[in-house]
Amino acid sequence: MPLRICILETDILRPELVDQYKGYGLMFEQLFAKQPIPAEFSVYNVVEGHYPPEGEKFDAYLVTGSKFDSFGDDPWIQKLKKFLLERYENGDKLLGVCFGHQLLALLLGGKTERATQGWGVGTHSYQLTQKPEWMTPALDELTLLISHQDQVTQLPENATLLASSDFCPNAAYTIKDQVLCFQGHPEFVHDYSRAILELRQDYLGEQVYNQGVSSLDRDHQGAAVAEWMMRFVARDHAPESS
């Protein structure tokens, strides 16, 4: 049986990007199609108030990136936090990317805030601080496309750091066998990163923009992270999916 993954979409793309990229839910579906573990996906846009039907069961819940601040007091964010805390207390597996990474850290006892380092954009590399068996394929370091001005500045007490850099010390973490989160965007493709850099050029400033664009010459390992995520979820899934 394939894994059943609920994607909680926490953004609505800018009008200039919708025709080509649709939304983060579709980006993740396209990403996970590149990895070998069978999975099927249901996407719910929580900004618009959409959630799975009561009683619907999934092997994991993935919280996407967003232009919103994870520490914001928007009503939809408060509702999402309540939903995720219920899932966590129920023992469900939770995956987070960018906003999701930050929100879950905040929800489970960590700290998230506007980063003094400023905007992170383009392609970024991290050192891996742990390499558990489910992190297959094995990598010497992790490179991902990024776009964020907030960071997790303190991990929850029971979290284990997985990846770090000078710019982003808390770049990936796990909480036991239940939570797996990444600051970088495995679902991004270079053309999307370039498009959002163009749209934010004036806001970012010339130096950050130019550095971001030039870094897009480098490859990234989003497909490997997608496989890590599915292996993390699949460990307790019967029958074995890989």
UniProtKB/TrEMBL annotation:
<dbReference type="Pfam" id="PF00117">
    <property type="entry name" value="GATase"/>
</dbReference>
<protein>
    <submittedName>
        <fullName>Amidotransferase</fullName>
    </submittedName>
</protein>
<feature type="domain" description="Glutamine amidotransferase">
    <location>
        <begin position="77"/>
        <end position="191"/>
    </location>
</feature>
<dbReference type="InterPro" id="IPR017926">
    <property type="entry name" value="GATASE"/>
</dbReference>
<dbReference type="InterPro" id="IPR029062">
    <property type="entry name" value="Class_I_gatase-like"/>
</dbReference>
<dbReference type="InterPro" id="IPR044992">
    <property type="entry name" value="ChyE-like"/>
</dbReference>
